[in-house]
Design brief:
Blueprint: H1 2-23, H2 42-46, E1 52-53, E2 56-57, H3 58-75, H4 82-110, H5 115-134, H6 136-159, H7 164-178, H8 182-188, E3 200-202, E4 205-207, E5 211-213, E6 234-240, E7 253-256, E8 261-264, H9 273-280, E9 289-293, H10 304-321, E10 327-331, H11 348-359, E11 367-371, H12 377-388, E12 393-398, H13 412-415, E13 422-423, H14 426-443, E14 448-452, H15 458-467, E15 471-474, H16 476-481, H17 485-499, H18 505-508
Parallel strand pairs: 5-6, 5-15, 6-9, 9-10, 10-11, 11-12, 12-14, 14-15
Antiparallel strand pairs: 1-2, 3-4, 7-8, 8-13
Helix pairs in contact: 1-3, 1-5, 3-4, 4-5, 6-17, 9-10, 10-11, 11-12, 12-14, 15-17
Amino acid sequence: MILLILLSLAGLADSIYLTYEHFNEVIPPCTVNAFLPILSDCGKVLTSPYSVMFGIPLAVAGILHYGFLSSLLIATFFSRRKVIKYMIILQSIIGAVSSLYFMYIQFGVIGSFCIYCTLSALVSFIIVSLVYIYLKRERFQLHTLIYAFIYQNILKPVLFLFDPEFIHNTMVSRGKLLATTPLMKLVGSKLIFKDKSLRQKTAGIYFENPIGLAAGFDYNADLTQALYYLDFGFQSVGTITNSSYAGNPYPRLGRLPKSRSLMVNKGFKNKGATAISEKLKNLKFLIPVGVSIGVTNSSEIKTVDMAVKDIVSAFRIFEKSGVKNSYYELNISCPNLVNVKNLTLYSPKNLDAVLKAVGRLRIKKPVFVKMPIEKTNREISLMLSVIAKYKFVKGIIIGNLQKNKKDHNLVQSEVRKFKVGYFSGKPCEERSNELIGLAYKKHKDRFVIIGCGGVFTGKDAYKKIKLGASLIQMITGMIYEGPQVISQINLELIELLKRDNFKNIKEAVGTES
């Protein structure tokens, strides 16, 4: 910052000198005249109509610019408020853009240049370059704030006028298309922020950051080439089933804005394991991609035996396909299946049968089991004891949708609008956090925990991490806050780790359990 202050003060001194000369009607000497008399003529530049804008001499505008910038730079020594650094970034950009315009006026319109004006422009260009380097994190934060403002105040009010499933399908198809164009990389480069404090190797997989997209959004694996550019550290596709399923009867999605929740009733809508594995088998992924697998949503699957065979068939299809996924999820907890009451796959006996059958496949990639959150602590503990027996299961995901429609985080006037489905987002957060803490205390040396439910901010994610989650998954927060929220969460996590004197995110895991 010292160098920036000195440069800003140099620009201020230059502007003060030109202002003095302007009001005293003195043309300052231009020493390069002797060598470049045709190109350099301070008098021609400083007395041109362009030296005054809206009745204000440009030299005075320079005093205001450099004076304000100097004040902001000095203020950083006394205050850590982000807004000051944001203002430094914006003011340096204003100075550089203005200088670029005035240099064009000198060479392109007047046909000469003033050494003092050029010096001021050079100072502005150096300042904006140094600000770009020194305030990298703040620059990214400012980008995300601008994106957030546009999404939350302009785009979201319009998008929320339309049917949520229509918007979801439209956004997924547009995201898939954009991933094939340079535009995705151009926009995404403003959102990707890498920091060593967020990097970790967990379950044998390298994660650039801990924020992932949960299963249930990209259920036909359309966005595997796009999500890296939203700063996701990983993603799960699906949930995918052995046979395709067109989805439950409408409505399949609904919004509860006051509850900060979504009604979800898709019921494992997907094109089936064969079609999706064919789509993915020749692709390379920029982030770890997981495949979430569940039982086909069909009334024809009437017994646990049939369900186990169906699930194993889906795993076998992917194992034979050569898809380069990093991990699998076994989703035993979706509450929106037609046969869910008859196929309680999370009861200890049935869960054991599923895991035993999947284990026979000798899958080498890590498997994570997605857990329900509506079960009691005792029921969850029994499930964890069963899962712990199977070494191929490296972790658990906590958890799935909120089934309790009376949950105090749900606004009942919103709940009454929906006769079907269960709820994501904030109504899941409290119970998810409780179960993360429970699982970490009982099995911290056995399971990698992925926390899911109610993550809208970095603080939400950090809470789960300190309770015992190594990784975080989300969907609903992105829909309400905007696609830039992933980058915002990662940036906030970096600050929270620094505040608590953690050098890496792994050090924070479980510190509140």
